[in-house]
Amino acid sequence: MNTKIIFRYILRETLGLAFMGTALFWSAGKLSWWPGWAILGVMAGWDIGMAVVILRFNPALLAERLGPKPGAKTWDTVIMSCLGLAQLSRYILAGLDQRFGWSGGFPIYIQLAALVICCLGYALVVWATQSNAYFSLIVRLQPDRGQTIITTGPYHFIRHPAYSGAILFEIAASFVLASWWVLLLSVLTVGLIVLRTALEDRTLQAELPGYVEYTHKVQFRLLPGLW
């Protein structure tokens, strides 16, 4: 594995965590805020988990996920940019809510239960990444990497398990951070993920050989029995 690629990946993820921590604690006006540290810890654990499974199972995926590649879908670049902006706004809004007490606080048992769901959601994302050697950061068909249909791991049950895990995190994070305003913003991010799922699934059906047959075997995109 190219050490420059590993360094770039570590640098990008470290800077991302630094921006996230700054957004949380600067807006909250204090460092002594355990929900902020908890969410930051989940994100750090996710970063580490992703790095471990990629380097162990799909090392070529590291370079693939470092940025858009030829054939990347423009619509997905727009969606991911909107998601990034919405997620940054979430952390700033959560900190302001903590500082000014707009939501009035949540029961601790709800926050802790939501924290468990956050961990489970991102564990599903890591599992999906371990199973899918073609899980690019921006949607694109990858004939240059010999892309094939993935039917193992969570893909045996639903077609887009990583997005299901991300949705779990998006909703549960609002309760960890104890903010009704953040929950409203999470509705937007979940909507963007659902839109991305629909567009990616349509793209795969149109452009990836064998995917239509896969949809006949695995009928649901995000939630078994619903959609």
Task: Explain what the structure shows.
With 227 residues, the chain is mainly α. The chain has one domain (3-217): Four Helix Bundle (Hemerythrin (Met), subunit A) (Up-down Bundle). Helices cover 69% and strands 0% of the residues. It is built from 8 helices and no strands. It has helices at residues 3-28, 34-57, 60-64, 74-100, 108-131, 161-176, 180-207, 211-217. It starts with a helix and ends in a 10-residue tail after the last helix. The mean pLDDT is 93.
Comma- or semicolon-separated keywords:
227 residues, mainly alpha, Four Helix Bundle (Hemerythrin (Met), subunit A), 0% strand
Question: How many strand units?
Answer: 0
Shape: globular
Q: What low-confidence regions span 5 or more consecutive residues with pLDDT below 50? A: none
Overall number of structural domains: 1
Rg result: 18 Å
How many H/I helices? 8
Main CATH class: Mainly Alpha
Secondary structure class reads mainly alpha
- The CATH architecture term is Up-down Bundle
Helix content: 55-70%
Largest sheet: none
Distance between termini? 39 Å
Order of helices and strands: HHHHHHHH
CATH topological fold name: Four Helix Bundle (Hemerythrin (Met), subunit A)
The proportion of strand residues reads: under 5%
What secondary-structure arrangement, pairings included, does this model have?
Layout: H1 3-28, H2 34-57, H3 60-64, H4 74-100, H5 108-131, H6 161-176, H7 180-207, H8 211-217
Helix pairs in contact: 1-2, 1-4, 2-5, 4-7, 5-6, 6-7
